[in-house]
Amino acid sequence: MVAKLKSSYGSGIEALTYAGQNYMVVDRSMIPEILQVLRNEEQFDYCVDITAVHYPQRERQFEIVWVLYSFARNERMRVKTQIADGESIASSVPLWAGANWLEREVFDMFGIKFDGHPDLKRILLPEGWKGHPLRKDYGILQQDNEWVQINLGIESGQ
Amino acid sequence: MTDRNSSLSPLDLETPEKPFLDANELVINMGPQHPATHGVLRVILRLDGEKVLGLECVIGYLHRGVEKIGEHRTYTMFNPYVDRMDYVAAVSNGMGYCETVEKLLNVEAPPRAQHVRVILTELNRIASHQLWLGTHALDIGAITPLFYTFRDREEILKIYEKYCGARLTTHAFRIGGLQYETYNGFEREVKNFLDFFRPKIDEYEELLTTNRIWVERTRNIGVISGKDCIALGVTGPVLRASGVKWDLRKAQPYANYKDFDFDIPTGQNGDTYDRYLVRMAEMRQSVRIIQQAVDALPEGHIMAKVPKVMKPPAGEVYHSIEAPKGELGYFIVSDGSTQPYRLRVRPPSFVNLQALDVMCRGQLVADVIAVIGTLDIVLGEVDR
Q: Are the C-beta atoms of residues B161 and B171 closer than 8 Å to each other?
């Protein structure tokens, strides 16, 4: 399958295996197309998870990961791409309705914007919270003190 | 409201073409503190009279930043934290986490440990389904099943308590196998439980399966098709009740599930009643698995050779198991140090809760309670 994708899309795809699990690294510009092909032609009809990893020392800091599963093939595939801070990526809600909350969580935790998402807002943290906790530069004890003081009426949540 | 209230004219119930209530939308708030939401879940309902036009979930009240904590603890230290996500199925969470780290370390738990893990995890599936049944039935108005299920769940918790000292947040498994050997009489007690529990499932079913109120309150309520389930990523008993025969224990067997003989129960209609039947059948299948596992419990070591200081080679692994609520996945990125570089939990409750809107549209307000119950969510896992 990957060979087929490679022959039609060229060098933007790299297929790798680690611990018996297949994944591919795809150029950011090709993500919408590749995901669509995987969904419609390769029968990856179940979007298991969407998440991100922050690598602050890299030039393109964020790695977005889609975990896909195909019921027909009984096969998993991870798709990864790298984007820089401030860049956005196409939403996959039109492909998988379940991507909605998963993308909201990535936005909430990393501040990555998804273009075309129907309702992109924070999901686990309250609206108006400052900062994105799963970024590496966000300390484990850090919190939005201003929000805590205004909304909870206490000096600090610690 | 329109001027009907101010015009002081009597309600005209005879003319059907006029809607009984005006089409004005009523927005009401349910929760976050509400006994039927099984935790702190806030639901904003848009209503037309009693009918639900749509709803929005507001979650995050129990957010503790488990994934962030994971990045700041060693692999071993993070193990107890996973118990606190889905706290009614702590053993399943531990199973998923330990297996994922074992994959990263490229070790495998010894056969005896695998068997004990399967026994405890399936007992946990029964306990989780019992808690679901009791509270779900209570929400709908049947109080008796709660007493029955909690009485019988106690027997499982006693086994846990004897095995590892804890009843709820068990921390039963370790990376590489088990910390504790089974106690004296473990096998006998598990077998006794199975003999004790088999007729109890019939007892639960007697109370509900043909109970007219139960059937009226659950049949054709919260219907979701298999196609919609897949599009939304819904897994577990909800998916199976919609007719999709998919269970990770069969589709991509982990631990030693391929050694055991069991069926995957499915439903056809994808309604609340079918989900109830599927979970009842699942409890019977769990009993079958435990019986086989305890009959064939091998002797031997319970711990694989794992280093004291765990430093998995740099790499990333996604591994998932069939938790009582659906697919529970862990995605761990290792950078070769003692702490995970990134630890992502793919919680089944979080993804399944997204289906609430689809399932409740067109239903009555009272049915929202039934649908929240039938989704079997645990807010500790939704919010993490």
A: no
